[in-house]
Amino acid sequence: MNNFTFINPTKLIFGKGQILKIGREIPQNANVMITYGGGSIFRNGVYDQVKAALKGFNCIEFGGIEANPDYDTLMKAVSKANDNNVDFLLAVGGGSVIDGTKFIAAAMKYKGECAWDFMVDQSGINDLELVPMGAVLTIPATGSEMNNSAVISRRSTKEKLSFAARANYPVFSAIDPQVCYSLPKRQISNGIVDTFCHVLEQYMTYPTQSYIPERFAESILVTLRNIGPKLMEDNSDYDLCANFMMCATMGLNGFISMGVPQDWATHIIGHELTAIYGLDHAVTLAIVGPSLLRTMKEEKREMLLQYADRVWNISGKSEFELIDEAIDATQYFYERVGIKTHLSDYGIGDENFDEIAGRFSRRGWNLGERESITPDKVLEILKGCL
Ligand code: NZQ
Ligand code: ZN
Residue 195 C-alpha to ligand 2 middle, in angstroms? Predict the structure, then answer.
């Protein structure tokens, strides 16, 4: 097991009706800015619950944070927050709103000329002064409600970058599984695949005799395997939704990464596909993930064999067959929960492969748990996505 330091300061407030309790988590005299997305919170009752919980607070609002939150939109929020002396941010939404709010929290006090710069050169990332924030989660997927990462897009330059300032965790996150009832099927598919892929990024590497985090990871994968297709049929079952939400939060809050190596190449390559083509985040993962596993199967051999056995119950075959069938099962699972897994399904060809590999070359990035995914390997993975 590798050395690790673990901290997760986010207070989780989980269950039916729990959004109404958030008022007690925010300082009484705070100037609060509520941030939200395109308006789903007005249609599903979440906004009304938040307003009831914040009765008596001094609040302003900033709406319109888009899926894959955009730098230019967020900078408008930064101005509004600073003009109104905001000192507490409350994100009400999914990963995009929560990530966007983490960015606002960091950009509000940023002294440099252009806030994008702290994501390009992250050497000062832990020195950023952060405005405290809380979250009301409305969609299980990213784990942003209980981690310190954020992914921000800049449409004007077709870029998408992530950053993680050490202290940029929500102070609290309220999670009421009933928010899942209003989710469109597309977002349920996205949440299942994103969560599954988060777990694989932290699990499908090489063995370090880290039995506990491996079993934690497998418990999430098996749970998603079992409940994913059921959720696609029925997202009004409270316990299915509660387990789904717990999978998503536990999948990316540090619990399963203790002591183990991490990959994240599927995500990093996927971010380029979102930046260039606007594909949903989870769609990019469903496309890149299986191809990456096929390309890297020698390096991931031991964990693929363990995965075949413990997650997909495949046994009694040659190693070669076990590995191939486990990867096929993963791809079939993504398709079964509603996401097509080839670039051609979206009318995309190889026209930008060189540009993507070139971006990694220019940034000097080699990806994966062994940093063995060179720009040439990225090209090979992308060719396997067609
Ligand atoms: O904008 P509104 O109107 O609220 O609608 C949203 C949006 O259109 C809708 N939605 C959310 N909750 C709903 C709902 N509709 C009905 N009922 C509800 N209860 O769903 C749409 C997608 O929302 P979004 O927040 O974009 O989804 P998600 O949570 O999947 O977030 C995706 C973003 O998170 C980043 C992704 O790259 C992407 O930008 N990620 C963040 C991570 C992190 N912070 O750790 C890790 C992830 O790997 C990921 O990269
Ligand atoms: Zn993700």
Answer: 7
